[in-house]
Amino acid sequence: MTTPPDFSSGQVLTSLAMNSVGLWLVKTQTVGTAVSSVAVTGAFSTDYEHYKIQYSGTASTSGNCINIQLGAVTTGYYAVLQYGSYAGVGGSVVADSNAASWTHCAGAVGNQVILDADIYNPFKTQISSISTNIYTDSNNAGKKAGYLNSATQFTGFTLLVASGTITGGTIRVYGYRN
Amino acid sequence: MTIDEYKAEYPQDAVFIQVDDIERTMTDEEYEAWVEQGVYNINHPLP
């Protein structure tokens, strides 16, 4: 048998092959027009421990664009965005210390926002953590990591627009195979 | 940007909160809090 993901036409997909698929699409959510926040429910469960959230769409303002909140928890978010400027100034940080959400999870260059965040253990009765793979605005770029000081089991999350609104695009949630 | 400028750009009846596929406008309290946070964020970009 060929090794996934290189399948042959007409090949039977065995459990061995399917169980070796590492990333599964859990949920998609189309974003409406001029929304200030998007809550995505039913995303996290016992099926997976860790998740990836991706979104690209149109922002009404540039700069800091997306904050993330898990469930209804509005306190206890700790994280650091490390970023540098395209002018070569590095070593700058933005800290969330007992914040109401994880801020600066995604930025917008012009009107284009890109979010790529990994959420760790959101459905376990232990702290949840986050890492983001891309923060870009017109002047800076960086990455973020942190945790939420809560042992709540979360089934969903909310994308909060830092200023202005977002329009269109699709939020995709993937589960990493355990 | 001032609060009045922000409100003029984003009137309360033109901004929506989305939960899955359902969208609704904000309550007065939600809108005022959102405006205050948005104005702060837009006036404090990363240096």
Number of helices of chain B: 2
Determine the most extensive contact between two protein chains: A-B, 29 and 21 residues
Shape verdict of chain B: globular
| Helix-strand category of chain B | alpha+beta
Q: How would you spell out the order of helices and strands of chain A?
A: HEEEEEEEEEEEE
If you had to describe this structure to a student in words, what would you say it looks like?
The complex is a heterodimer of chains A (178) and B (47). The longest helix of chain A has 4 residues. In chain A, 2% of the residues lie in helices and 56% in strands. With 47 residues, chain B is of the alpha+beta class. Chain B contains two helices and two strands, in the order αββα. Chain B has a two-stranded antiparallel ribbon with strand order 1-2. The two termini of chain B are 17 Å apart. The model of chain B has no long low-confidence stretch (mean pLDDT 96). The chains are: A mainly beta (178), B alpha+beta (47). Chains A and B meet through strand 2 of A and strand 1 and helix 2 of B.
How is this fold's topology laid out?
The complex is a heterodimer of chains A (178) and B (47).
Chain A lengths: L14 H4 L4 E8 L4 E6 L9 E10 L3 E8 L6 E9 L6 E8 L2 E8 L2 E9 L7 E9 L3 E9 L8 E5 L4 E11 L2
Antiparallel strand pairs in A: 1-12, 2-11, 3-8, 3-12, 4-7, 4-11, 5-6, 5-10, 7-8, 8-9, 9-10
Chain B lengths: L2 H7 L6 E4 L2 E4 L2 H16 L4
Antiparallel strand pairs in B: 1-2
